[in-house]
Amino acid sequence: MNTAFDFLTVACFAGLVIAFFQFTTRDTRTLLHLTISAAVFAIANQLGNAGLPLFALILVVAGAGYAALIVRQSF
User: Fold this and answer.
1) Which of 13, 29, 52, 71 has the least C-beta neighbours within 10 A?
2) Which residue range forms the structural domain that includes residue 56?
3) Domains: count for the chain
4) CB distance 40 to 63 below 8 Å
């Protein structure tokens, strides 16, 4: 973990795990939707490390927004 994007995306992923266990009904469908957000965070990390911070931040915000919608709907 060398860059700020490494720390940011790992923190977002940890937030996904906490949200899944604390704020959802823990069904498979919700887990699959949150897996999409986790993949977006991984792509954002790669873009941030490759020198494209604007696109990476856009993806982080989009992934977090999508996860928030899924958790809100599942709650």
Assistant:
1) 29
2) 4-74
3) 1
4) yes
The tokens for 23 are 């704020």
Q: How many helices (H) and strands (E) does the chain have?
A: 3, 0
* Gap between the Cα atoms of 36 and 66, Å rounded: 9
21-64 pLDDT tens trace: 999 999 999 999 999 999 999 999 999 999 999 999 999 999 99
Give this prediction's pTM.
Answer: 0.93
Element (H, E) at 15: helix 4-23
Residue 65 contacts residue 74 (beta carbons within 8 Å): no
Structure token digits, residue 41: 């965070």
CA separation for the pair 14, 38 (Å, rounded): 10
